[in-house]
């Protein structure tokens, strides 16, 4: 069979992140099953128009505002595909209306409040309105999502069929857990793209609250992005320059080593599709303390594999960490349960089920492209 992934970014795009990592794993698995797999994405400066990786044919064309047109022009010259995967990142490809074959929508998260982080004021509200109406427009298209939080959000927007397949994890769990007593200095870690919606500044402020209360703690920030300069400046202003270490992006083995040595992963994102780095930390025997937001409440089971704080504040993150310093047995039990659960998200477990489903979708009888019926979306 022939499969096409539509994604604004490909794995070699400088802005590629977790969505591209997991998408590549799924597409690679389809290729290993003997299928033809293509991936169309935006072009970017210095990028070739086509390349091949892991047997997958990558094609680039257009940019913001023009790549849908470029994809359509390329697509009409290709032999028929059995399934098109229309991956949304705020804005879709509208493939069901031009691909003339079976189509599923693939979405990691409903952006919702994230629109306001990048586009304050009216533009944020326009983006949020556009996203909601896009989901209603796609309401008869099958959706594939990684978490129950995303499923609930789509259902609230009128989508009728949503299938949850949790993401797999590249990080192999430690063969056995080593001792990790809660002795000073307390080691905190953040693994993230340094973007406004990730709110890494909240982790820096969490460190400030802990240090101010007498806790000997340090923070390692793994990842790169436009916010790094601001975060370094914040650490300096708070007198934490000697306690905050910025590593930049790291190769997987070095990233895993940072996760292994940390006592806690902190995650203060506005919203996530799943929270892949939570599972990566768990695989290294490190529990997470996270904000009560979509995605993170799915990847973290409160009180069992990590802790979901009551409110989205650095003070709540710090208070939870501080309370656990007095409960070493609770901490140890939780990290063991987190490590055990990480085994459930290995690719060897996840991929067969998802590939079976994608193949089943590709065999479904073809239907006419969806049309906008005369019904209205659910109220806000």
SSE inventory with pairings:
Blueprint: E1 2-6, H1 18-32, E2 36-41, E3 50-53, E4 56-60, H2 67-75, E5 83-88, E6 103-107, H3 114-118, H4 122-137, E7 143-145, H5 148-156, E8 162-164, E9 186-191, H6 200-212, E10 217-222, H7 228-237, E11 244-248, H8 252-261, E12 264-267, H9 276-283, E13 288-290, H10 296-299, E14 306-308, H11 314-324, H12 328-342, H13 347-363
Parallel strand pairs: 1-2, 1-5, 2-4, 5-6, 6-7, 7-8, 9-10, 9-12, 10-11, 12-13, 13-14
Antiparallel strand pairs: 3-4
Total DSSP helices: 13
Distance between the termini: 41 Å
Enumerate the strands of the largest sheet in spatial order, edge to edge or round the barrel: 3-4-2-1-5-6-7-8
What overall geometry do the principal axes of the alpha carbons give? globular
CATH superfamily of the largest domain: Glycogen Phosphorylase B
How many structural units, i.e. domains?
2
The share of residues in helices is: 25-40%
Cα radius of gyration in angstroms: 21 Å
**CATH class term of the largest domain:** Alpha Beta
Determine the structural class based on helices, strands and strand pairing.
alpha/beta
Task: Examine the coordinates and then state which fold CATH places here, giving the name of the CATH topology of the largest domain.
Answer: Rossmann fold
Mean pLDDT: 92
Q: Could you give the order of the helices and strands?
A: EHEEEHEEHHEHEEHEHEHEHEHEHHH
Count of distinct strands: 14
> Sheet with the most strands?
8 strands, mixed
Query: Which strand-content bin applies to the residues?
Result: 15-25%
**What low-confidence regions span 5 or more consecutive residues with pLDDT below 50?**
371-380
CATH architecture assignment name of the largest domain:
3-Layer(aba) Sandwich
């Amino acid at each position: 069979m022939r499969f096409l992934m539509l994604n604004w970014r490909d794995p070699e795009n400088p802005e590629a992140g977790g969505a591209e990592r997991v998408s590549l794993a799924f597409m690679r698995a389809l290729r290993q099953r003997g299928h033809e797999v293509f991936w169309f994405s935006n072009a970017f400066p210095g990028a070739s128009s086509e390349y091949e990786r892991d047997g997958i044919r990558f094609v680039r064309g257009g940019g913001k505002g023009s790549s849908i047109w470029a994809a359509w022009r390329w697509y009409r010259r290709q032999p028929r595909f059995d399934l098109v995967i229309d991956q949304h990142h705020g804005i879709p490809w509208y493939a069901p209306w031009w691909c003339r074959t079976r189509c599923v929508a693939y979405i990691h998260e409903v952006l919702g409040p994230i629109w306001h982080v990048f586009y304050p004021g009216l533009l944020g509200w326009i983006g949020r309105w556009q996203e909601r109406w896009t989901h209603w427009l796609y309401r008869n298209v099958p959706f594939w999502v990684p978490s129950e939080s995303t499923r609930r959000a789509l259902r609230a927007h009128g989508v009728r069929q949503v299938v949850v397949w949790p993401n797999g994890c590249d990080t192999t769990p430690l063969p056995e857990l080593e001792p990790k007593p809660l002795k000073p200095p307390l080691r905190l870690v953040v693994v993230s793209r340094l973007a406004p919606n990730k709110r890494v500044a909240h982790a820096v402020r969490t460190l400030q609250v802990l240090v101010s209360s007498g806790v000997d703690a340090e923070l390692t920030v793994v990842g790169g992005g436009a916010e790094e300069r601001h975060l370094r400046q914040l650490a300096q202003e708070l007198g934490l320059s000697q306690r905050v270490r910025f590593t930049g992006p790291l190769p997987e083995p070095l990233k895993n080593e940072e996760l292994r040595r940390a006592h806690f992963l902190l995650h203060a994102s506005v919203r996530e599709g799943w929270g892949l780095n939570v599972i990566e930390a768990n695989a290294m025997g490190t529990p997470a303390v996270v904000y009560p937001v979509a995605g993170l409440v799915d990847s973290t089971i409160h009180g069992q594999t990590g802790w979901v704080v009551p409110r989205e504040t650095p003070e709540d993150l710090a208070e939870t960490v501080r309370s656990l310093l007095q409960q070493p047995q609770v901490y140890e039990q939780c990290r063991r349960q987190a490590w055990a659960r990480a085994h459930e998200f290995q690719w060897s477990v996840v991929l067969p089920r998802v590939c079976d489903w994608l193949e089943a979708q590709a065999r479904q009888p073809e239907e006419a492209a969806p049309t906008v019926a005369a019904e209205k979306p659910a109220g806000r």
